[in-house]
Specification:
InterPro entries: Cell_wall_metabolism_enzyme (IPR050570), Dup_hybrid_motif (IPR011055). The protein has about 650 residues and is mainly beta. The protein is about 5% helix and about 45% strand.
Length: about 650
């Protein structure tokens, strides 16, 4: 089949399987200092997290208020409002209330234990229509008015723990803003503290301490609020980043800093300050931070330059967006970190800039191969950039690569090498074919942010399809598919160390045996936690189709085991509500909580799911335990494996 006919075939399949959805958002001006807010809990005026901190896939859009590891503190309406929205779910915000204020702005209160009685009745009336656990309802038409200071809920740990209150303020067009921009304050006399420096290569010729990889260095404290990163040798363009945190009085939590400045030879070249952002921008946390470090170590190094694709409103820069391509010689760098209350710390760095080394070699052959044999192609630890890839020395052995093009001219490409490995320049007009054996190979194809692209597998007819604006910047992407047997396939979408803006389409060819196996599913492998996470799929023609939100490793695996239920027990929550807990475990695909049912003594309740505690909860507002409680529970996992159990649970009632 020709390249053009294969491409048309991919396009046809893609159009059948996937629609395209577009949306936009307008912005309205809003000033947060036009109203008076009250502190929204009686747990105390202390924070566990600040606005704009690093989260798993976004910026933190609120203040997290400390509840000292306990549940049941009162939550107050910070201003007069109407009840706008109620939501309940197993993850994210958990049980959450949205209030709309008279100026059109909003306040949000999340991870709650329960709502105030009348609000709880509203939520229950919605859920018990069909015994749904999960709801997200706009109730503004009910015109339920709330006064400033009214108790609206009790604090909890729903969605994601430990116990705390997520307190969020939004403009009328739902842009979150820092609550400390209002009259709300905390006691803070402690300056930020620097921990580490990062230096990123921004070109194939760049080197930091002799390597083309990201370099990190611990700080040295000089006394007081002064720090030093010493001297770093560099050549070529680079970008700096810092791991820095803040603290407040009387607590030990580490917070994000509010403001960062970088001076080069006493000239201000970068300034960031986090006051507000839109939800359309929140995943740009990935490019505000040094993503490869965030992905590998969960450390939120903040870049001191604006990476390509970053449109956040935080920055002021001079010249080259904070990127450093300095003249040879020694340069003085000063980095200043401020918290919201003006406490400040300073770190210094000397950059010794050397001439770019002459290490390149040109090859005009169609392929290059090492002298060693290998049967395993391992590109997990390769570092990919816009127009080059850095291959560690250990992965070069047995590797063959070649440019693929539609003309007969093989072209020239450039290799750089030293003791740290090899750098291969990527050609935007050609795919690069990587191979270690006849059955283990893939191509890397350059994908640009503003164009639709398809990256095919070289071992079968599987492919990945990327809509415009999937990536922040131009990137070479590869798809490797390796089938071990009919119920076990490895799928890798390279590179692992790059973020994406939105999900992409992954269409994996399945054979006739796999087509008839209804228990096959797709799982994302999280290397850092050594965990498999289920991904929803559809079978379309002879493809298993998914929309992952990340690049990385995936497995097609079979799940034939039903969930396990154990240890039923009756508990009385801190608010006085009686509940029944059941521990639940599933070996692979996870609980399909929307299909769970739970009844006690013939009364059907709501089966609430608490994944962090591996717990299924029987909730009914009128439940009180009897001397003998007959439980009937039915649960399914995501592959449809079913468990049905009955229990007789005695309870000694008060006489």
């Amino acid at each position: 089949m020709s390249v053009s006919s294969t491409y048309r075939s991919f396009l046809f399949i893609l159009c059948v399987i996937f629609p395209v959805t577009l949306f936009g958002q307008d912005s309205q001006p809003f000033s947060p200092d036009g109203a008076t807010y009250i502190w929204p809990t009686n747990a105390g005026e202390y924070l566990t997290s600040t606005f704009g901190e690093t989260r798993s896939a976004h910026f933190h859009s609120a203040l997290d208020l400390k509840t000292w590891g306990k549940k049941g503190y009162e939550i107050y309406a910070t201003r007069d409002a109407v009840l706008h929205r109620i939501a309940i779910g197993p993850t994210g915000y958990g049980k959450v209330l949205y209030l709309k204020h008279d100026d059109g702005s909003y306040s949000v209160y999340a991870h709650l234990l329960r709502f105030e009685e009348k609000i709880q009745q509203i939520a229950d009336s919605i859920r018990f229509r069909d015994h749904r656990f999960e709801i997200d309802e706009n109730v503004e038409d009910m015109n339920y008015r709330i006064k400033q200071g009214d108790v609206i809920a009790l604090s909890g740990a729903s969605g994601i723990g430990p116990p705390h209150l997520h307190f969020e303020l939004r403009t009328p067009d739902h842009r979150p803003f820092n609550p400390l921009l209002t009259n709300l304050k905390v006691e803070d006399t402690i300056p930020p503290e620097f921990s580490n420096l990062s230096v990123e290569p921004l070109s194939m010729e760049s080197e930091i301490e002799g390597s083309n990889r990201i370099f990190t260095k611990r700080v040295r404290k000089n006394g007081g609020n002064m720090y030093s990163f010493g001297t770093v040798d560099v050549s070529g363009p680079i970008g700096l980043g810092v791991d820095v945190f803040d603290q407040a009085d009387d607590v030990y939590n580490a917070y994000a800093v509010y403001e960062l400045k970088m001076f080069v030879d006493d000239e201000l070249v970068f300034h960031s300050k986090v006051d507000s952002f839109s939800y359309a921008e929140t995943n740009q946390m990935f490019v505000d931070r040094v993503y490869p470090i965030l992905n590998d170590k969960r450390a939120g190094y903040q870049r001191l330059y604006i990476a390509d694709g970053n449109t956040l409103p935080f920055y002021k820069t001079s010249g080259n967006k904070g990127k450093l391509d300095l003249a040879e010689g020694t340069h003085s760098i000063r980095i200043i970190a401020d918290d919201y209350f003006g406490n400040s710390s300073e770190a210094t760095l000397r950059l010794r800039v050397n001439p770019v080394g002459e290490q390149s070699r040109d090859f005009s052959t169609t392929a290059v191969s090492s002298k060693f044999d290998s049967t395993e192609l391992n590109a997990e630890n390769w570092t990919w950039f816009e127009n080059w890839v850095n291959i560690p020395d250990n992965d070069i052995q047995g590797l063959t690569f070649a440019e693929l093009s539609i003309d007969e001219d093989p072209g020239n490409y450039t290799l750089y090498g030293n003791r740290h490995g090899m750098r291969l320049k990527l050609n935007p007009a050609r795919d690069i074919f990587f191979r270690t054996s006849a059955v283990d190979h893939f191509i890397a194809r350059q994908v640009t942010p503003h164009h639709f692209s398809i990256v095919p597998s070289t071992t079968d007819k599987s492919f990945a399809a990327f809509q415009p604006e999937t990536f922040y910047d131009t990137l070479s992407v590869g798809l490797r598919v390796k089938k071990f047997r009919s119920d076990s396939t490895l799928v890798q979408v390279y590179p692992f160390n790059h973020p994406i803006k939105q999900g992409y389409k992954l269409a994996l060819e399945i054979d006739s045996v796999q087509m008839t196996n209804t228990k096959l599913g797709l799982y994302k492998y999280e290397r850092r936690r050594e965990k498999l996470s289920y991904i929803n799929t559809k079978i379309q023609q002879n493809y298993m189709v998914a929309q992952p939100e990340e690049l990385g490793s995936f497995y097609i695996l079979e799940d034939n085991e039903s969930p396990e239920l154990m240890n039923p027990r009756i508990i009385k929550r801190v608010d006085g509500q009686w509940l029944i807990y059941l521990t639940i475990r599933d070996n692979l695909s996870g609980l399909d909580y929307n299909r769970s049912t739970f009844s006690v003594n013939g009364t059907k309740g709501i089966a609430e799911y608490e994944p962090e505690d591996n717990r299924l909860v029987y909730y009914h507002p009128e439940f009180e335990p009897s001397d003998e409680n007959n439980l009937k529970v039915t649960v399914y996992d995501m592959e449809g494996n079913k468990t049905e159990k009955s229990y007789s649970l005695p309870f000694e009632t008060e006489k």
